[in-house]
């Protein structure tokens, strides 16, 4: 297949720059502790300085992979599929989620919302970043809002973002891992004073699993 043909299929969402795929325990947010198959798609220009998957940023370093291959692999492991990145909404998620739905799989996404929402989702975890704010209707559609706390200003940003979400959206504050010892007590105190929020921890890192 020639390069232009591959790029055309990527643009249509029929191939995606696949960084990795793995079966593990969801470590964060509402579904923490449950088994899920993760599909990590390359490509992200949001540029969080504390990102722990910076190798996902350059989509060109990850091979364009047909969605049929991705879906067939996922179906072997779990009925819950988590699409993450990178920033998965960089790409058209419609074809991938349609194919997953045809196999009766539940589709979850973890996204900054920096690009327009595409695809069919059973669960949307929205995690906005200051560098590139969410677009369009995703605030209305998000099931959970996961705000990463690196410094005290992040509480102000979290409240600004929470004010844009729908009334049923579950609100989480999560310490950024590299400063967790410093910021976790801040989060605990904040949640106790503002109980509309919940604490989210990266439990998979405490369990030492992917």
Automatic annotation (TrEMBL):
Residues 41-115 form the Radical SAM core domain. Substrate binds at residues 25-27, 40, 84, 210. It is an enzyme of class 4 (lyase). Its EC number is 4.3.99.3. Binds 1 [4Fe-4S] cluster. The cluster is coordinated with 3 cysteines and an exchangeable S-adenosyl-L-methionine. The keyword Metal-binding applies. One of its GO terms (biological process) is tRNA queuosine(34) biosynthetic process. One of its GO terms (molecular function) is 4 iron, 4 sulfur cluster binding. Keywords: 4Fe-4S, Iron, Iron-sulfur, Lyase, Magnesium, Metal-binding, Queuosine biosynthesis, S-adenosyl-L-methionine. Pathway: Purine metabolism; 7-cyano-7-deazaguanine biosynthesis. S-adenosyl-L-methionine binds at residues 50-52, 86, 127-129. Gene3D superfamilies: Aldolase class I. [4Fe-4S] cluster binds at residues 44, 48, 51. InterPro entries: 7-CO-7-deazaguanine_synth-like, Aldolase_TIM, rSAM, rSAM_sf. It catalyses: 6-carboxy-5,6,7,8-tetrahydropterin + H(+) = 7-carboxy-7-carbaguanine + NH4(+). Belongs to the radical SAM superfamily. 7-carboxy-7-deazaguanine synthase family. This is 7-carboxy-7-deazaguanine synthase. The gene is queE.
